Structures are given as structure tokens and as C-alpha cells.
TrEMBL record, chain A:
Name of the protein described by the UniProt record: Uncharacterized protein
Protein source organism: Desulfosporosinus lacus DSM 15449
Source organism phylogeny: Bacteria, Bacillati, Bacillota, Clostridia, Eubacteriales
From TrEMBL, chain B:
Residue span(s) of domain CobW/HypB/UreG nucleotide-binding: 3-185
Pfam families the record matches: cobW
Transmembrane segments: none
Protein name: CobW/HypB/UreG, nucleotide-binding domain
Superkingdom per UniProt: Bacteria
GO cellular component: cytoplasm
Coiled coil regions, renumbered to chain: none
Length: 127, 207
């Protein structure tokens, strides 16, 4: 991999807050698995393209919280005490992916598209 | 006011470590401090991007957090950070302030600005977190950034050592020592609870 000059070429940043509404109550496990899949897909896409992941972070805000973080390798998972028993009909997702080697536009398209695909179970998006 | 300035590349584990340090500091507060309207610990979070995540994680722990979101602290928010720090000093005068810089920042540049223009600062120490798992990759791809983050640190925490074999950890340590031989150095894994003795030493060193 070549040496990048960070002083002149910054990373692409995808950073958004999205509120998702579900048609039926969804378990925290299902939300967690969908978000793990999203983090994995962004990591795999970056790896395939030989990009460098700065970090990928997710924070789920609701009555309970979930925090995922990764540098494109393993995924660090932390959650509030009652997370595992929680079900929700609405959650607020805070997501950030920082990737070196691509453009903001491309990263945004990929991140949005994969996020939609990972939540393909009766989900409505309220931005 | 004692300031702990945390730096280190994206994904090195700064927020996880700050959570543990904050818990350690709060444990040492008196009943009076804990019941006071004014917090004894304030955290300033600078994040890249439009949505803050680290500030929400820290707030979920009940910590007092000020956000500086947008851009990179080393390029654009140096002045804003000093203004924020001085406001905190005037309004709250806490015993401790922890600053988490972005993963692209040069902590020593920020420390120099704070030392010059910050008010009411009793101590200021720079703590840099290095990512053991990605050390070889990052120091090959962006050696200037990684070296400049580490070179003037007072304390270096080599994090994620659980991802390497002991001999690999020794290799990374040697490499870091060549860049900064004088800093206090600890090899840790913030994935688990870190020995509080390390925080005690770091805090004592900072007083």
C-alpha cells in the first residue's frame, strides 16, 4: 500500500443521524445484527477497493443504547444493561464511516445503499 | 484545573480509554463534589463529521460533555477549543478537563495553543493512544502523521495489545520508543478493565 499525505488528501466522511421507524416491534438482536452486517459490508467494500478505514462507528439511541466500532477488522460491541431484552418500533441511528482513498460522494452512496439493504424489514426512514 | 489532552489516530481506542479514566477520576471525587451543581470533570469532544457519536457514548455514562463538531481540530478548531476551555474555567472551574481530539489532530500543536492562551490551567499533559493492531500498517501508510502524534506525548498508551503476540508487542514498543524515548509508556487492552494503577500513575504524573 502506498504512503498517503494526510496534509493534502483528507479522508471521505459519511456521518449521519437517521431515525428509523418499524412497522412492527423489532428485537434489539435484529437491530444489532443489521448494524453489524452494515459495518462488515463497509469494511469488506473498503478492503476490496484497497482503501484504508479510519473508523466506522454506530451509536443507537433509544431507551437502550448500542455502540459498535471497527477499524475494518474486528467489531467492538458494547451496549447498555437492558439492551438484550429491548424491543423497539423506532430508533435513532448515529453512524460515521471515515475512509481514506475514496470520495465523499462514493462513500455516501455505498453507505446509504448498504444501510437500506441491511434494514430491509418493514422499515421507514424519518430523517 | 488539570487538563488531560488525548490524541491518537482514528480507531485507536481513545473514547474507550477516556471512559475508563473518567470512571477512575469520578470514583475519587468527594461526596461534596458529586453532589455539587458544578461538575468536577468536564469532557470536550472534537469529532470529524456532522454527527457526533463519542459525545453521545460519554453522555450515556452520565458524564458532562461539550462538543466541538466539524472539521479537524488541528486545522480549524484550535481557537474554538481554547475559547471553550476558558469558558469552562470561568463557568465551572472543574478539577479535571479531558479533551478528546480527532484522530487526525496533532496533539502537541493543540497543547502549545492551550498552554499559551488557556486560563487557570494547573497542569496539562498529552496522552497519545497508539493502535497496536494497526501499528505496522499505519506507520507504513502515514508515517508523518503517526510520528508527529507521538513524538511529544507525555504519556503513550499502546492499546489493543490483545490482538498481538507478546514478541510483536515488544517490536511495536521499540518502534515507538525510537520516536519518543522519554514519555511514560504503558501497553494496555482497553477492551477489558485496565489496571487502575496505570490511571493512578498517569493522574499523579499529571498533577
Amino acid at each position: 500500500m502506498s504512503e498517503w499525505s494526510t496534509k493534502h488528501s483528507g479522508p471521505a466522511i459519511f456521518s449521519e443521524t437517521q431515525t428509523l421507524g418499524f412497522l412492527e416491534k423489532v428485537t434489539s438482536e435484529k437491530i444489532q445484527q443489521s448494524l453489524i452486517l452494515w459495518v462488515k459490508e463497509i469494511s469488506d467494500w473498503s478492503k476490496d477497493k484497497a482503501y484504508l478505514v479510519g473508523h466506522i462507528k454506530v451509536f443507537v439511541e433509544g431507551l437502550e443504547n448500542l455502540w459498535l466500532s471497527s477499524t475494518g477488522r474486528s467489531i467492538n460491541i458494547k451496549h447498555s444493561q437492558g439492551w438484550s431484552e429491548w424491543t423497539a418500533d423506532m430508533v435513532t441511528l448515529n453512524v460515521t464511516a471515515i475512509v481514506f482513498g475514496t470520495s465523499k460522494k462514493v462513500l455516501e452512496e455505498v453507505a446509504q445503499e448498504r444501510l437500506k439493504a441491511c434494514f430491509n424489514f418493514g422499515t421507514e426512514l424519518y430523517k | 484545573m488539570n487538563v488531560l489532552l488525548f490524541g491518537g489516530f482514528l480507531g485507536s481506542g481513545k473514547t474507550s480509554i477516556i471512559l475508563q479514566v473518567a470512571r477512575y477520576l469520578v470514583k475519587g471525587f468527594s461526596k461534596q463534589q458529586l453532589e455539587s451543581d458544578k461538575p468536577s470533570l468536564v469532557i470536550i469532544e472534537n469529532e470529524v463529521g456532522e454527527t457526533g457519536i463519542d459525545d453521545k457514548i460519554l453522555k450515556a455514562e452520565g458524564l458532562n460533555v461539550r462538543e466541538l463538531i466539524a472539521g479537524c481540530i488541528c486545522c480549524t478548531l484550535n481557537a474554538e477549543l481554547t475559547v471553550c476551555l476558558n469558558e469552562i474555567q470561568e463557568e465551572l472551574s472543574p478539577q479535571w478537563v479531558i479533551i478528546e481530539t480527532t484522530g487526525m489532530a496533532f496533539p502537541h500543536t493543540i497543547a502549545e495553543t492551550i498552554a499559551k492562551y488557556g486560563k487557570g490551567i494547573d497542569s496539562l499533559k498529552t496522552i497519545v493512544v497508539a493502535d497496536a493492531e494497526r501499528w505496522d500498517e499505519l506507520s507504513t501508510i502515514m508515517p508523518d502523521l503517526i510520528e508527529e502524534q507521538i513524538v511529544k506525548a507525555n504519556i503513550i498508551l499502546l492499546n489493543k495489545i490483545d490482538c498481538l503476540e507478546p514478541e510483536q508487542v515488544c517490536g511495536v514498543k521499540e518502534s515507538i520508543r525510537r520516536i519518543n524515548p522519554s514519555a511514560l509508556f504503558y501497553a494496555i487492552s482497553a477492551h477489558d478493565e485496565v489496571n487502575p494503577q496505570i490511571w493512578r500513575t498517569a493522574v499523579t504524573y499529571c498533577e
